[in-house]
Structure formats: C-alpha cells, structure tokens
Specification:
The protein is mainly beta and 191 residues long. The protein starts with 10 loop residues before the first helix and ends in a 16-residue tail after the last strand.
Amino acid sequence: ALWDPQGPYSLRSTLSILQRGPQDPTTRVGASQAWLCFHTPAGPVTLPPGASLASSFTVTNPGDTPLSEAIVGDTAWSGDGAAPTVTCPAGPIAVAASITCTADHSVTQSDIDAGGVSLTAQALGESATGDVTSSVVPLTTTLTRTAVLSLVHTGAPTPVTAVGQVVTFSYSVTNNGNVSLSGLALTEDSF
C-alpha cells in the first residue's frame, strides 16, 4: 500500500500516481499569469493645458493557457478629474502573445501645477483555470513646470516738461510660465 499510517511511505511513489498524462481529461494545467507593462513617457514632458497625455500598456500572457479578453483597470490615480479609461483590443490572448491597450488624459492646469500625474493599474483576464491578474504596476509621468515672470515698467506722461509735474508709474506683470503663481509682490530696486 502507498499510504500506511504506521509508515514509512514514499513521497515519490505517492506523487507518481497523481501525475496525469495528456490524454487524461483530469489533467490540471498550471495557472496562467498576466504581465502588465507601461509605455507612457516617464517625462519630464512639456504639455500645455488641454493637451493629450497618451499612455499605452502591454498585457502579456506568459502562462500556459490562453487568456480571455483582457481588462486593464486603475487602482490609483493622482491626476485631475476621473482616471483615464483604458481601451484594450477585443479577443483572447494566446500563450506567449501580447496586446497593447491605450488610454488618453487631457492635461489640466492642476496636473501641471502638481508636477505630474501618477496612475497605478492592473490587468485582469480569465483562463480555463480561473481569473488571472497581473501585478499592480505604478507609473508617474513628470510634467515640466516652468515659472517665468516678465515685468514692463512705464511712466506717464513722457516726456516730463516741468518741475513738479506728477509722473504716474505703472507695472505690467505677466506670467510667461506654465504654472499658477500667487503671492505676487513688487520691489523697487532703484529710483
């Protein structure tokens, strides 16, 4: 007998009768696993508000069974508004095959002020042995922040024609950068 509570028994001979051949309908195929890889530029990327930040994701089936249609979902999102919707091609993923999924986010001023956006995503599919998921993959895309002020200083009237004439100075300050600025102060260096 292979199993004798009084022992001893052979683990090797016990396992040998559990092995099934390819013709045995009860053969268990090892569970598949999905891989998820980002292809969004990590940055820094210079984009104005309203520009599209395109992301692509490669979902790979390195397992030994085909995967049904894949879904890529976000698990965390730091950008302004709702997380971008990831669109994947319909259909199964064969063994050792990959598909590319895409998503677009319209960059906002808040995204630029924050210095970038972070998206954490995970792929999900189904195989004959059940649901399979990829590891959770984070990605941060850095958005270039440039703070630039310009100042135009004018006085009127010009020319001054008499002693005691009142001259009014005006200052035009322009934000020529791509980030929101606050706490503006003017300092006169010389007069």
